[in-house]
Task: structure prediction
Amino acid sequence: MAADDAREQEFMRFIEPAYPLLLAKAGLWKSNPAEMRELADKAARALSAVAPVDCDAAGFQRDFCGRSMRTMPASSMAPSIQEKEVLMMKPYKDTAPKRGDIIVFSSKYYASPDKPVLYVKRLIGLPGEKVELHDGTVFVDGKAFSVAPTDRTMTDLFGNTARILEETTPEGRRYRTSMTDQAVAGQDEAGPFEVPAGHYFVLGDNRHNSVDSRFPDQFGENGFVSAKDVSGKAAIILVSPDPDRIGTLVE
Result:
């Protein structure tokens, strides 16, 4: 057996008994044992790929080797991450978040100012940068993110059809976003925002259904995310209502 296969089998022995609990927690219980094992196998392969090389399944079972799991609380990151999907998150440790990362953080929300809320958003603006949106296009320090259409659509939270687009940062980082054809006040035209030191500007990929840095009165610290509140970035999808998405590496 190849080393990679042995590592996958080791992680499979760890996750197979735990996977039904993960599915149940997400409200996605499966009654077919064969189907359950197939989904667990996909998750195990992904885990073995993203776990640190010095982390075996025993270490992962003990403390996740520094990783953690988070459930996507809403649809604000669709199509990249769907509501109720369970993510494996990895910490940054000695590296800093980069533009385009999907970061996980706790932040204040106007509806519950005394209790920080867990968020998952796309990092768009770094400290010292100026971010603005014009007709839905993102600009950072005057440089536009390119946007290209795809042949895919999705249905948003309100039953509207949203186009799925491919957005590319000036550095060449690519990912999918979604927008309806109807412009939304305060979302397609926003800014400019000057990102303060020690903070980030974030957006949801579901651009017409996301509370994010465009709303300084409702989100974070005047709309920004403090670097100290970032706990890590999304790495893989462990559980999903769509079986084909299980094991997907998050871009």
In short: The mean pLDDT is 84. The helical segments are 3-25, 33-50, 57-63. The first strand starts at residue 68 and ends at 71. Residues 179 and 208 are 6 Å apart (CA to CA).
